[in-house]
Design a protein that fits this description.
By secondary structure, this protein is mainly α. About 45% of the residues lie in helices and about 5% in strands. The strands form 3 sheets. The protein has a 4-stranded parallel β-sheet with strand order 5-4-7-8, with helices on both faces.
């Protein structure tokens, strides 16, 4: 793929976002480190509301290190994942006290030894608080925009950063990251990039090569940058070239044709096949007159949350939940606030019996998906309150292709097949290269016939460890 000219891009970014900066409030490197930890999966505005009083109560790393953890959890609760975040902040600050005299170190090598601090967080602190060009900040916006502009073909943030560090002059690193965040936030957005009038429209491969830009729903995270003079760009229609793929399917407004980036290269041919186009038309027609679950932009959520390269475990379900607000694109998982359905309740019982993990206060399995557990249903849509209504419309063919592609991976994958329906897919899996774990389905109809006591979670982790892979942390963080 062609790529935009870096000097031209830098020049135009500087003109458009001359004051690109981060929006998190901070007065010291320690404040910024804490705010950046809190900003994961949370808006900057909410983080700033929380840190206003937090920074008054905790002035030094020692204050956080000796804080009552339960109190700290309450104080950061509005930012979500508060137990994990409070623990991370405290652990990080204990290390700052023990090894760095209570100060935030000013080198990348030292920063990444602090618990909970990866390159992105380190770069935010080093670039912003210390003004050091330690690297290029790569968040979801920078990753998406860089790929669309042809600056990288990589998926993993560290590799994207390496590509950008090679392309962008070192003295522009601290500007480039925040400016690209702004471009992604205001113009090259995940769902509806405003290509018409975009600062790099004349060079962008998405336009020149007619590729429809698209990005997973999981990249909707808010950003940490702002520019004093940058105004949001008015919405404009995408150029004809970028629309062509959607129009060929007569599915304008639908994301059915849009695979998440990491799956595009393995499944692109599949969605061009006549059966998939027929399926896409069927689902689009259904949506005109019926309520269909999950919503259009969550149909591929399992693929979005678990990129192809990251799949280590595949759990196969059957049909999406069909009651209101339950399904969000992952098998067995329901949205926060929705009571776990009976099968999931049984999964939690077995999880406790197997690994002693208490059931969480929700049924939201995103944390598993993000660790490489592909939670795939065989059928990806359903009409509201009508189970199996989208069976035999083409989804099974598509998800068989997904399973076959996972089977092609060189690394060992653990396939968890619960119940007879899932076990029919065993023929798609090479048992010499991968591990297949079979068992009774967790539904109340069959859980007592072999599901309870089957210890699938420890079996998966054992197989992963045997293959030299990290075990899955099955404990779900609170939501
Ligand atoms: S032309 Fe469109 S896809 Fe390319 S960078 Fe601009 S908004 Fe993004």
């Amino acid at each position: 793929m062609a790529k935009v000219s870096l000097p031209v891009l830098l020049d135009r970014l500087e003109k458009k976002y001359p004051d690109a900066r981060y929006e998190l409030d901070w007065a010291s490197p320690l404040d910024l480190l804490v705010a950046t930890i809190l900003a994961a999966q949370c808006t900057d505005e909410r983080v700033n509301r929380v840190t206003k009083s937090l920074f008054r109560a905790y002035k030094t790393a020692g204050d956080y290190a000796k804080a009552d953890l339960a109190v700290l959890e309450e104080q950061v609760k509005p930012t979500g994942f508060y137990k994990q975040k409070a623990r991370t902040i405290q652990e990080a600050c204990k290390v700052l006290v023990a090894r760095f005299g209570g100060r935030v170190p000013a080198t990348m090598d030292e920063m990444v030894t602090i618990p909970g601090v990866a390159r992105k967080t380190a770069n935010v602190v080093l670039n912003t608080a210390f003004g050091l060009p330690s690297g290029v900040i790569v968040d979801t916006h920078v990753a998406r925009v860089s790929r669309r502009m042809g600056l990288t073909a990589e998926e993993k943030p560290e590799r994207i950063e390496a590509d950008l560090m090679r392309l962008v002059p070192r003295d522009r690193w601290t500007f480039f990251g925040p400016a690209m965040v702004l471009h992604g936030r205001y113009t090259c957005t995940a769902r509806a990039p405003e290509c018409s009038g975009c600062l790099i429209e004349d060079q962008c491969p998405q336009i020149l090569e007619g590729v429809a830009p698209a990005e997973p729903a999981s990249t909707k995270k808010t950003t940490t940058a702002t520019a004093k003079k940058a105004a949001p760009v008015k919405k404009a229609a995408a150029p004809a070239a970028a629309r062509s793929s959607a129009q060929s399917l007569e599915l304008k407004g639908s994301t059915m044709h849009t695979l998440p980036a990491s799956w595009r290269h393995v499944l692109a041919a599949e969605i061009e096949k006549p059966y998939f186009q027929e399926l896409a038309r069927f689902v689009a027609e259904e949506r005109k007159t019926q309520q269909v679950f999950p919503p259009d932009d969550e149909v591929f959520a399992a693929l979005e949350l678990t990129p192809y390269e990251d799949v280590r475990v595949l759990v196969l379900g059957q049909d999406p939940y069909h009651d209101d607000d339950q399904a969000h694109g992952l098998c067995f998982s329901v949205r926060p606030g929705i009571k776990p359905p009976p099968s999931l309740a049984n999964i939690y019982k077995e999880l406790e019996a197997d690994l002693g993990i208490k059931k969480p206060n929700h049924g939201y399995l995103v944390s598993w998906a993000k660790q490489g557990v592909l939670l795939l249903n065989a059928v990806l849509t359903v009409r509201a309150h009508t189970p199996n209504s989208h069976k035999d419309k083409g989804w099974e063919k598509f998800t068989d292709a997904v399973i076959s592609k996972v089977n092609e991976k060189r690394e060992r994958v653990i396939f968890l097949l619960w119940g007879g329906y899932a076990q029919k897919k065993e023929k798609l899996i090479d048992p010499k290269r991968h591990t297949v774990i079979k068992g009774a389905h967790p539904s109340p109809l069959s859980a007592r016939n072999g599901f309870f006591g089957s210890k699938p979670f420890s079996a998966i982790n054992h197989a992963l460890e045997e293959a030299g892979s990290e075990p899955i942390s099955w404990a779900l963080p609170p939501v």
